[in-house]
Specification:
Elements: E1 3-9, E2 13-20, E3 23-31, H1 40-51, E4 62-67, H2 75-85
Parallel strand pairs: 1-4
Antiparallel strand pairs: 1-2, 2-3
Helix pairs in contact: 1-2
């Protein structure tokens, strides 16, 4: 069974939880990602440099991102960042 990622993001840090078979496997932390303060490119860079190298080689089945600044106007920036870093998940909603 593949794992899922759950992110809880504020402006200063993002807590990531890797869950497989209903059990927490790992917790990771990256810088905060708030689309009011970061560009899509900055969020992608944070994911690529500080999250992806710490994940298993297999791709997640899903990413659930809960974050500050994820308003209807700004959520597309976060979705685009996640889609570019996890292309197998297209399309994200």
């Amino acid at each position: 069974m593949q794992y899922i990622l759950i992110a809880d993001s504020g402006s200063t840090k993002t807590d990531w939880c890797l869950v497989k078979d209903g059990q927490q496997q790992a917790r990771l932390e990256t810088k905060g990602m708030n689309p009011f303060f970061q560009t899509q490119e900055q969020m992608e860079e944070e994911i690529r440099q500080n999250l992806l190298p710490n994940l298993p080689n297999e791709q997640p089945a899903a990413v659930y991102f809960y974050g500050a600044g994820c308003t209807p106007e700004k959520s597309p920036l976060v979705n685009a960042s996640l889609e570019r870093c996890f292309p197998q998940l297209l399309p994200l909603r």
